[in-house]
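tool_call: predict_structure(chain=1)
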Amino acid sequence: ETLSQVVQLCTSVEQYASAEKYLRRLMEDSPQAFSALVVMMARQGRTREAVQMCVEQYALSPTELNAQNVAIVLMADPSSEEANKAADSVLTLAVNTFDKQTPLLNTIGAVRHLQGRFDAAEKIYRLALIIEPDDLLTLNNLATLLAENPAKLDEAMRLVDRGLELSPNSA
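tool_result:
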């Protein structure tokens, strides 16, 4: 608890080297510390290094959480071509391995969208909708993606309408 507070303090005053030191100590007891560390690294422009750590962690333990870490790092800084290439095989494998995990599919779909890989993002979102047809986040993500293509605006609007029907209080 105390180390977590120290990390938050260090991060709030942009003392990232100190925060990293404490996060590395916390990693021994908490998997969430690893996630926080790699995201912080990505936000500092150390995306390639953070992705490499995530890929190595996934190779040791191919879990949904470790796949999620790869995707979250890329969402924190999607501009690194090198990092995107390093993460590609893990994300592709994760879609096939964890093909029933809608939250992970949404995150990977968002990464593909940010990468400009619209067909891959659409395929992933559609897979997630097969699993959970009423998932508001997936409906929204797919609608947003489709709205960028004038030929798919009608479908995007149908998805928005469906989401509003499912959650009328959020309109």
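agent: The chain has a mean pLDDT of 90. Proceeding to next step.
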